[in-house]
UniProtKB/TrEMBL annotation:
This is NAD(P)-dependent dehydrogenase, short-chain alcohol dehydrogenase family. Keywords: Oxidoreductase. GO terms for molecular function: oxidoreductase activity. It comes from Trujillonella endophytica. PANTHER family: 17-BETA-HYDROXYSTEROID DEHYDROGENASE 14-RELATED, SHORT-CHAIN DEHYDROGENASE/REDUCTASE. Signal peptide: none annotated.
Length: 256
């Protein structure tokens, strides 16, 4: 897809994956909207990268808030790429269905995880696609692409990941169905399923890489957010990537 003069919306653009995706897209000449709630971090990124980057405070649980971010991106140039990489309160913290003292997981915790990691993904996908449908078509009737973030936990989860795995499994299932739904409009849908990545969520990156990197078959390290960003740009460029979730995990399989 020709991205000349286009804009991109990165939902969660102030986080680990999101920031590197913003930087990659700006380096490739796109205008970018950072949609996030982390105002201080997002404003700092936008100030550093210059006029081509705008921060819009975005609540992914609100239709109106998501619509405002989409509208801002469209004002910068045709919105051709939407990347959905937002997290949520608690970061999908591990919690078993039944705790060791015999208590079931609180429904509030379950619903919060699915709201931010699945429902919000669908909200952004549907509303961004509705906006992209109005774009002038490019070669092969292409109007845009939505890149969703799943997880290898959606394929095989570790203990304590029930709600997170369900949410990410939903994103995986959504990818092909949405790609087929949106095909007549010339809008592609892809997913990226990261493995264990070294993001700012880890306070001690050296210790984290030593602990978790050794379980990755090859290379023997945690992934880097810039590797996610590189793939997200390659997906945007390549029109024949559609309806599929790419594992980005160094061949890691939980339980293997």
């Amino acid at each position: 897809m020709d991205l000349t003069g286009a804009s991109a919306l990165v939902v969660g653009g102030a986080g680990g994956f999101g920031e590197q995706t913003v930087r990659k897209y700006v380096a490739e000449g796109l205008k970018v909207v950072i949609a996030d709630v982390a105002e201080e971090k997002a404003n700092a990124i936008a100030a550093e990268l210059g006029d081509g980057v705008v921060f819009v405070h975005t609540d992914v649980t609100s239709d109106a808030s998501v619509d405002a971010a989409i509208a801002k991106a469209q004002s910068l140039g045709p919105l051709r790429v939407t990347v959905i990489v937002n997290g949520g309160p608690g970061g999908g913290a591990a919690q078993r269905i039944v705790s060791r003292d015999g208590k079931p997981m609180p429904m509030e915790a379950f619903l919060q995880t699915t709201e931010y990691y699945y429902t919000a993904t669908y909200r952004v996908l549907s509303r961004a696609a509705a906006s992209m449908q109005g774009n002038e078509p490019l070669e092969d009737n292409q109007r845009g692409v939505v890149i969703m973030t799943a997880s290898i936990a959606g394929f095989e989860a570790s203990p304590g990941q029930t709600s997170y795995a369900m949410a990410k499994g939903g994103v995986i299932a959504l990818t092909l169905a949405a790609a087929r739904d949106l095909a007549p409009a010339g809008i592609r849908v892809m997913g990226i399923a990261p493995g264990t990545f070294l993001t700012p969520a880890f306070p001690d990156p050296v210790k984290a890489d030593e602990m978790y990197g050794k379980i990755v078959p090859n290379p023997k390290r945690m992934g880097r957010p810039a590797e996610y960003a590189k793939l997200a740009y390659q997906i945007a460029e390549n029109d024949y990537l559609n309806g599929y979730v790419i594992r980005l995990d160094g061949a890691l399989r939980f339980g293997a």
